[in-house]
Write a structure and sequence with these properties.
heterodimer, A: alpha/beta, about 20% strand, B: 18 helices
Chain lengths: ~1050, ~500
């Protein structure tokens, strides 16, 4: 280094000692400040030459050919002048599709001035519509994914961990690295390079995969998902000799026999299936010969949503499913099956009734059987054989070629194979597209060790998660709402996924990353997708492309039904008898799925439909087993499966099959993000590739520890008095209570008033003349009302998440839930009935409860500041700005549907256990404290409530007013079906119906006149609610037979 | 001082019982009362005041935390929207009943014994009402807007909702507080003048001078003073009944089982009087010893209070049993459940604490022997206070934890802030009370003097004109009081 000398250059300020010293290196650097700028060139050119240069530059810049554009063309940028078809403040809706586990979910996204804020099902797509063309339903994951988009814990940087410290770097750096590294690999034809991808059958993804494989012909490609339809696929392979996917038509099935198949809960097509299932439940209200009701049988190893909604249910060990399937096959006379011995009495009677009903339904081509994801492949195979004999294919089942049928190995085998390869030392580079195998790979494949061995490992994911931290490179992934893509839904129909917003954190989609790594010329997502659709679907014309984007479905793109597939083999060896001990059954979690949604607060706070657990998972035991082991809810146990053990809290679930313990995967993460870290228990540590769903022979030891489980209902053990009061209110098994009305279908046919049981004839005598019930009192053309069908409600909580998204409802965190301060405006009350010691005896009822909009609202009379009152259309409205928070209204609400902001929940950290003081003007707290990106998610139509005010369901008053005002501007009035509340929109079974009670033909008016309709607590309190419930109907076997007997006598 | 121990708890219809003992004449009464305010600050007072002040500081800190953070710092939850703050509010309002009852109703009924304790009880009333009024103010979700509860004309043309019992509360409590303060102050004017006249320090002279409003003791002053006092007592009498009736409407007009009960107004008033007297006794029994006022606040005063304790305790016990009866007789499932749940559910302990304290413990006051025992009365009164707090706890918390829909059932757990605020409210109460004891006439001297025989030289008992004569002529032992004989009155 040169010494510092007295500078003579006249520098007033200097950048470094080197510059001050005016060393030649520095001089060189300073010269390079504008690299490529060579003033000599300009100086040397003539005037004419200079003008030529300038005009060329100007032309290039001005015409915008390539050079000086600020943004690539496909990007979305705020507009400075208003496009013709757009108005600021008017939301727009875009159709798109979201691929989860290789199955696309068709969606309709509402965007508000460029911010996607609400996700609904695409009403034009058969796999999401509930009322074709009008209402589309999306499940809880899809709806909550909008929160994931704005999650500020998502990764924002490319991270390079090849050196000692993690280095936050950029895509440019990665591109540089990729060009050299993968350039070299290309030379070696991709030798030593493998890709581990999450499941995808997206056309563009497969197309780019093909190009990728062309670039790296020797590279390996593996696919892994922790939860998949592998068993189903392998079962079809066994039965038909080729990959076949079944699509059930529950709307045509009068009798459905399910073996561990949670078709209403965790099936990839459950939204469609639930809608179809409800058709045959609602038909109980028809007149005459059309009055019928389907009967659903289920034998299951875990209490599921479908189980709670089935008419005949038994809980069994998973190993019994095969025997039950065979027995049914034998008794139905399916070729190749005989003998049905060895069944337990419960199984025998289950099989006998099921067979009797299946035989009857077969005559009408209305019988179907299905098996679930956890059932062994040969159970699926037997079910296929039975379906064939029931003539189900073509009637109640459509068989199509499996879109994911090119896969030759199961996901478990794939990851085992991959690990083995890496550990064998032949692999040098691993690219992981999505997923989180470090966290969710089975323990026996030692994927973690394998990952550590690799010199180059790259992980593309939304979060800097466990796998990313174990890899050398982390690449931020674009959220599906930020990136171009496409997918196929369950029936194989394809559509394009269009982005709604620029990538907030600079992420890239899998296809873009693959194109980048393969050294493709085209690396922009939109161009890749367009190319694919041009090549594969011949969408070359702009109009067709626009129409495709607008519709969100390509007509006739669904897979063609396979009419020629025939059962090839029906005889499979019986599975080995389960070893001693309990059976552990792994399930996907209704909150986090396989763990991927762990950082989604809405999902964390959406209760598990059955256990009502939030922010936690637990091992689920039957009452019988818990009593045997001396366990109660919240006790800690040590589960030992194989060589692994896990300490986990216990939840005692009535109805859980005896001898089977259930646990959901997807908890116990430690790099999920601030919301999802260190919650619950990681069940993956017990999971091996051989025991992916069922792990027999597990041991349970009680530990001398307890754990506080977060749950939204029944937090404490109930005493004898409480039990008595509860029983009277909800009724005994198959019987009506005071607040829950139900009946069996047979009883209902005999007497339509049967569901109302003991409340019939109760007349609330009144001292004063009543205004309640006199709609003309309000002198308005609208009287809003709602009907909730408990018979159709499956308890899926889609409505609750929809409400949360629509109405800016905050999450409160486990600590606040433990004090019952959760804010959901709609809750699904879950009640058990029956003898808790007999898991086959348990019945579950779901009752969604939101503000009932009482005409005699008890809350209104007690508010001292008139913050809650009635509007002329019968809504019980809440004036947030007027509310001072006396909470008297909540005390006086018999339904307890009001929710109070004890803290400023939006600005409160949900993982914090105590309230943090805020020293500025309190009503400004969230404006200043809520992250600016998180604020983008808020629905601008609904006020974000400040702390200290009461809030509640408004029947989506913003939707009512948007519609009525726009109709009024057109000089007309809203008609039935114009206004759809968020919960109604989300409900896959149309259990929730909203409308104008003054409109005689409105669906809600008719439902209010349905004989099943009743208003909760109205007989006692004369609250005259505008929300009425339709009593629950079930179609169990026993009752009907008894009826037949008494009819004969 | 040669205190003459006379048992004045004995009732002899033929003789007027002396209400001032110890041979005190007017001067002695003045001296005894003024001495409390005039003597140098005692160490005991300082310690008590420091303690009270620290609890007041705790309250202040809690309120600061509450306002900056949110009312979620309490244990309130979804079914239990009202927790400790409202329990405390109703508790303190109840305490505030005894003072005005003693001052107004007993004044109208010419119960002369009230004069010894009315100042004390009124002060207690006012401080209790201050404690009570604080709670609804900070209890609301947005305390900075609590003034919206008052009908203040505003540019939004928004008025409170007059159908809401909470608004009635605002009027009832504020009226009660105003009337009580006025009553207390008007009654204190002659005594403040006495203190003024006796003051030696400039500050005291000026301050007492200002607050005694130029009282000279002229006949015209006395005349107007007595008219005003009589009118105020007539005004306050209905308030005694109204304020807690209105507070009870908060519950009675709602539809929650356990709240929706027509018996609440009388039951609450009786309970409030019961609780108020319990608090009077708890304060006055130590105070009379501490400040040397045993001759002015005599065992007869205590005994009379104990009798009221017993009477109101019986009304309360009757109300409890009536509530249970009605719940059973109504046949209403929800109502019946609520009461079974109270007695045998998860919060049964609070019910039994309440029943023991409010229905059982006053029964001891049937015994004259126990009524005369300061210790026994003090213990019973303490039970009364605890019981009345639990009564409100039980009404509010137990009813709310289990209402109509079983899915809403949820227990209530108070937080540390809840408990600190309850303790802090006692800090506020005792701070004010100790200041009162230190600087104001704790006994209504003028009124006490008016019921001393000297005030009635020609009325009824000429033989009891002077202290000396009283000493010799009133001989309880002649009518056979063994206690008095044992003491050996000369």
């Amino acid at each position: 280094m040169s010494s510092i000398k007295h500078h003579v250059t006249g520098l007033e300020y200097w950048r470094s000692l080197e510059q001050l010293a005016d060393s030649p290196e520095i001089q060189e650097l300073v010269d390079k400040e504008f690299p490529g700028y060579t003033p000599d060139f300009i100086k040397k050119s003539s005037r004419r030459g200079f003008l030529k240069l300038m005009s060329a530059s100007l032309a290039l810049a001005g015409v915008g050919l390539t050079g000086c554009r600020r943004w690539p063309r496909e990007k979305l940028a705020p507009y400075s002048s208003n496009p013709r078809d757009r108005m600021v403040g008017i939301p727009e809706q875009y159709a798109t599709i979201w691929e989860q586990n290789g199955v696309g979910k068709p969606l309709l996204v509402t965007s508000y001035d460029g911010r996607p804020i609400k996700i609904e099902g695409n009403p034009s797509h058969p796999f999401s519509w509930t009322v074709p063309g009008k209402i589309g339903s999306a499940d809880t994951f899809a709806q909550a994914s909008v929160l994931e988009l704005y999650d500020n814990h998502r990764s924002r940087n490319v991270i390079n961990r090849s050196r000692k410290f993690a280095e936050y770097t950029s895509w440019d750096d990665f591109t540089k690295f990729a060009n050299t590294h993968f350039g070299e690999l290309k030379g070696k034809k991709g030798e030593g390079f493998v890709v581990l991808s999450e499941a995808s059958v997206s056309p563009s993804f497969l197309a780019i995969k093909k190009r990728f494989q062309a670039a790296f012909p020797s590279a390996g490609w593996y696919e892994y998902e922790a939860l998949s339809c592998d068993n189903e696929r392998q079962g079809a392979q066994l039965a038909f000799g080729k990959p076949v996917r079944s699509i059930l038509h529950l709307d045509k099935a009068q009798v459905a026999v399910l073996l561990d198949a949670d078709v209403l809960g965790d099936h990839p097509a459950h939204t469609r299936y639930a809608g179809d299932w409800a058709v045959n439940r609602r038909s109980a209200d028809n007149k005459g010969a059309d009055q019928k009701m389907s009967r659903v049988y289920i034998a299951e190893s875990a209490y599921s949503l479908t189980g709670t909604n089935a008419d005949v249910r038994i809980g069994v060990d998973p190993s019994r499913l095969y025997h039950i399937a065979r027995a049914i096959a034998a008794q139905l006379g399916v070729e190749g099956f005989s003998g049905s011995e060895g069944l337990t009495p419960a199984e025998t009677s289950f099989v006998a009734s099921a067979v009797k009903d299946l035989k009857e339904a077969k005559e009408k081509k209305a019988a179907v059987m299905a098996a679930g994801a956890a059932a062994e492949p040969h159970v699926h195979a037997v079910v296929h054989a039975i379906n064939e004999s029931l003539e189900a294919p073509g009637n109640t089942v459509t068989l199509i070629e499996d879109p994911a049928g090119d896969r030759t190995q199961s996901h478990m085998d794939a990851i085992a194979d991959l690990s083995q390869k890496i550990l064998g030392g032949t692999i040098t580079t691993l690219l992981i597209i999505g997923g989180n195998p470090f966290y969710d790979a089975p323990t026996d494949v030692h994927f973690r060790d394998a990952l550590a061995k690799l010199p180059v490992s790259i992980h593309l994911s939304l979060f800097d998660d466990e796998t990313s931290r174990a890899c050398k490179w982390h690449l931020p992934r674009a959220h599906y709402l930020e990136a171009w893509g496409d997918a196929r839904s369950w029936d194989g129909s394809a559509t394009v996924a269009q982005p709604l917003i620029e990538p907030l954190y600079g992420g890239k989609s899998p296809i873009e990353v693959l194109a980048l790594i393969a050294g493709e010329a085209i690396t922009a997502g939109e161009q890749i997708v367009e190319r694919t659709w041009k090549e594969e679907f011949q969408i070359s014309d702009e109009n067709k492309w626009r129409k495709l984007l607008a519709d969100g479905i390509l007509a006739n793109s669904a897979a063609k039904p396979l009419n020629d597939v025939k059962i090839q083999k029906v005889d499979y060896p019986a599975p080995a008898a389960a070893p001693a001990g309990m059976t552990l059954r792994f399930q996907g979690d209704p909150r986090t799925f396989d763990g991927r949604f762990a950082n989604n607060g809405w999902l964390q706070e959406t209760p598990d439909p059955l256990t009502k657990l939030v922010w936690d998972n637990a091992v689920v035991l039957s009452k019988h087993d818990a009593d045997q082991l001396g366990l109660v809810v919240g006790d800690m146990v040590r589960l030992t499966a194989g060589g692994d053990s896990l300490e986990v809290a216990v939840y005692v679930l009535p109805g859980q099959p005896t001898g089977v313990v259930g646990i959901t995967v997807g908890y116990g993460r430690n790099a999920a993000g601030h919301i999802g870290d260190n919650l619950g228990f990681n069940a993956y540590v017990l999971r091996t590739s051989k025991t992916a769903y069922v792990s027999p022979g597990v041991k349970i030891e009680k530990l001398d520890k307890t754990y506080v489980l977060g749950m939204t209902q029944d937090h404490h053990l109930i005493d004898a008095i409480g039990q008595e009061g509860r029983d009277k209110r909800i009724g005994a098994k198959h019987e009506s209570g005071l607040i829950l009305h139900e009946a069996t279908f047979a009883e209902y046919v005999k007497d339509p008033r049967a569901p109302h049981g003991i409340t019939i004839g109760r007349v609330g005598l009144q001292l004063f003349e009543q205004t309640g019930g006199k709609r003309e009192f309000f002198q308005d053309s609208h009287a809003w009302g709602m009907s909730v069908d408990m018979s159709a409600c499956i308890g899926c909580h889609a409505c609750a998440v929809a409400c949360q998204a629509e109405n800016n409802i905050p999450i409160v965190g486990k600590h606040a839930v433990l004090n019952h301060r959760e804010m959901n405006w709609i809750r699904i009350d879950r009640y058990f009935k029956g003898d808790p010691n007999d898991s086959n005896e348990i019945e579950v009822l779901y009752q969604p409860v939101m503000c009932q909009h009482c005409e005699n609202a008890p809350c209104e009379q007690v508010c001292p500041v008139a913050a809650t009152m009635h509007d002329s259309e019968g809504l019980n409205v809440m004036v947030y700005n007027r509310c001072i928070g006396t909470r008297y209204c909540s005390n006086n609400c018999p339904y307890k549907v009001r929710r109070f902001n004890y803290f400023d929940w939006h600005s409160q950290d949900p993982r914090e256990t105590w309230g943090k003081p805020y020293l500025n003007i309190p009503d400004l707290q969230q404006l200043e404290q809520v992250d600016k990106i998180e604020q983008m998610q808020f629905n601008p139509e609904v006020s974000v409530r400040m702390r200290g005010v009461m809030e509640k369901c408004t029947y989506c008053i913003q939707r009512i007013h948007t519609k009525t005002q726009s109709k009024r501007a057109q000089g007309t009035d809203v008609v039935d079906g114009d206004i759809i509340t968020a919960c109604q929109q989300a409900c896959p079974t149309q259990a929730i119906v909203f409308g104008n009670l003054l409109e005689k033909t409105a669906k809600v008016t008719q439902l209010h006149q349905n004989p099943r309709s009743y208003a909760m607590l109205d007989d006692t309190l004369n609250t005259a609610p505008r929300t009425k419930y339709l009593a629950k109907l079930r179609n169990p076997v026993e009752e009907q037979e008894e009826k037949a007997k008494s009819g004969n006598a | 001082m040669t205190a003459i121990e006379i048992d004045n708890t004995y009732d002899d219809p033929t003789k007027r019982t002396p209400l001032v003992l110890g041979g005190k004449d007017f001067t002695a009464v003045t001296d005894a009362v003024c001495n409390v305010a005039e003597r140098p600050t005692t160490l005991g007072w300082k310690i008590a005041f420091a303690l009270a002040l620290s609890f007041l500081g705790l309250l202040g800190a809690c309120i600061l935390y509450l306002v900056t953070t949110g009312v979620g710092v309490w244990g309130n939850n979804q079914p239990v929207s009202w927790g400790f703050p409202i329990v405390n509010f109703v508790f303190w309002v109840g305490i505030g009943h005894a003072g005005t009852l003693i001052s107004a109703i007993l004044f109208l009924f010419r119960q002369n014994w009230r004069t010894g304790i009315n100042r004390f009880a009124e002060a207690m009333t006012i401080f209790a009402v201050i404690c009570a009024a604080m709670f609804p103010g900070i209890h609301v979700g947005r305390p900075w807007l609590a003034y919206w509860l008052f009908p203040i004309p505003n540019q939004m043309q928004m008025w409170p909702q007059f159908r809401s019992p909470l608004l009635w509360d605002v009027f009832a409590v504020s009226t009660y507080a105003t009337a009580s303060v006025l009553f207390w102050y008007v009654g204190m004017i002659p005594d403040l003048a006495t203190l003024r006249d006796r003051s030696t320090g400039k500050v005291r002279q000026i301050l007492y001078g200002i607050f005694s409003l130029g009282w000279t003791g002229s006949s015209r002053h006395w005349h107007r003073y007595e008219r005003a006092y009589l009118l105020l007592s007539a005004l306050c009498t209905p308030l005694v009944l109204s304020v807690h009736s209105v507070v009870s409407f908060d519950f009675a007009t709602s539809q929650l089982p356990g709240w929706h009960t027509t018996i609440f107004p009388p039951y609450f008033v009786a309970g409030a009087v019961y609780g108020g007297f319990a608090m009077v006794l708890n304060l006055i029994i130590p105070a009379r010893a501490f400040f040397g006022l045993k001759d002015i606040i005599t065992p007869r005063h205590i005994e009379n209070c104990a009798k009221i304790l017993l009477a109101t305790g019986l009304i309360v016990a009757y109300s409890y049993s009536m509530e249970f009866w009605t719940a059973w007789y109504s046949g209403n499932h929800y109502e019946r459940f609520t009461f079974w749940n109270r007695a045998f559910g998860p919060y049964a302990w609070s019910c039994w604490v309440m029943l023991w304290c409010n229905a059982m413990s006053p029964q001891f006051m049937w015994s004259k022997r126990l009524r005369k025992s300061m210790v026994a009365v003090f213990i019973c009164a303490t039970f009364g206070n605890i019981g009345m707090w639990f009564e409100r706890f039980e009404i509010i918390i137990t009813s709310l934890t289990r209402d109509f829909l079983p899915t809403n059932w949820w227990p209530f757990h108070p937080t540390l802030i809840d408990i600190a605020m309850l303790a802090g409210s006692f800090g506020l109460f005792f701070t004010l009370f100790l200041l009162f004891c230190r600087f104001l006439p704790v006994v209504a001297m003028a009124e006490v003097k008016s019921i001393m025989p000297e005030a009635h030289p020609h009325h009824g008992h000429p033989e009891l004109q002077t202290p000396d004569q009283r000493r010799t002529d009133y001989r309880p032992d002649e009518v056979g009081d063994p206690d008095a004989a044992a003491i050996g009155i000369p």
